[in-house]
Amino acid sequence: TAIEEAVPNGEKRDCRQLARRTLAMDTPSVDIQNIRAKYNNSQEPYLLEENLPTTDPFSLFDTWFRDVASQSDLTFEEINAVSLSTVGKDLRPSSRMVLLKAYTPTGFSFFTNYTSRKGHQLEENPNAAMLFYWPKVNRQVRVEGVVEKLPDEMAVAYWNSRPLASRIGSKSSLQSEVVPNRQFLESKKAELTDLAEREGTHAITKPTAWGGFHLIPRYFEFWQGQSDRLHDRIVFERDMDIWLLKRLSP
């Protein structure tokens, strides 16, 4: 099949076995073909170029972020949750949710363990993408760019501002490393909790391999959903020092 032709030879057998197991399942999957959500942004039904409050994508992101932050009846708690996608030298993309910790007129910052899978991938290939999705207002923002490591003093300052439990949890884990079981992590946590009780919270210092990344955008896409699927897609793409605005077909 066309799918098998695109898969490396060593993995075709696994794909065929998975397909057979899927077809052989006795319990039918959830019927998702007819799921339809009605999109409606009552404040701004359509995203029109002439009504944009600004043609600076950083300022427009700030406007959208402040708007969703002002919503009092959100169905989720972390509006700064963002899907981060990376690709290492093996060319296999991976995505995960991280928490945005700052955004400025130069980019978007988050913190992680540099030895994690995403840390290794960003070391091998600094190109990355972020996706913010806010279903309450039927909007999403895609950002693509290149990451740089934040200065270590910024990582230290943020680390020290975190709740003690978060610091202990982060320091208990060598992110993305294989561990034997949950108890292994709980034991590390207990050791650090005891250390904090004996020597004070300052003893839970930032791990050397823990720090921040700053994504510097070269591409923004502001998306607003429409129930007829003629979604609005407004793109800003950097050309030297100028942001070019264009509309994409949905």
TrEMBL record:
Pathway membership, UniProt: Cofactor metabolism; pyridoxal 5'-phosphate salvage; pyridoxal 5'-phosphate from pyridoxine 5'-phosphate: step 1/1; Cofactor metabolism; pyridoxal 5'-phosphate salvage; pyridoxal 5'-phosphate from pyridoxamine 5'-phosphate: step 1/1
Key words, A-Z: Flavoprotein, FMN, Oxidoreductase
GO molecular function, one term: FMN binding
Enzyme class: oxidoreductase
Cofactor dependency: FMN
Domain Pyridoxamine 5'-phosphate oxidase N-terminal: 76-191
InterPro entries for the chain: Pyridox_Oxase, Pyridox_Oxase_CS, Pyridox_Oxase_N, Pyridoxamine_oxidase_dimer_C, Split_barrel_FMN-bd
Domain Pyridoxine 5'-phosphate oxidase dimerisation C-terminal: 210-250
The enzyme's E.C. designation: 1.4.3.5
GO biological process: one example: pyridoxine biosynthetic process
Keyword flag Hydrolase: no
Free-text function comment from the UniProt entry: Catalyzes the oxidation of either pyridoxine 5'-phosphate (PNP) or pyridoxamine 5'-phosphate (PMP) into pyridoxal 5'-phosphate (PLP).
UniProt xrefs under NCBIfam families: pdxH (TIGR00558), PRK05679.1 (NF004231)
Family that this chain belongs to: Belongs to the pyridoxamine 5'-phosphate oxidase family.
Name of the protein: pyridoxal 5'-phosphate synthase
Species this protein is from: Caenorhabditis remanei (Caenorhabditis vulgaris)
Lineage per the UniProt record: Eukaryota, Metazoa, Ecdysozoa, Nematoda, Chromadorea
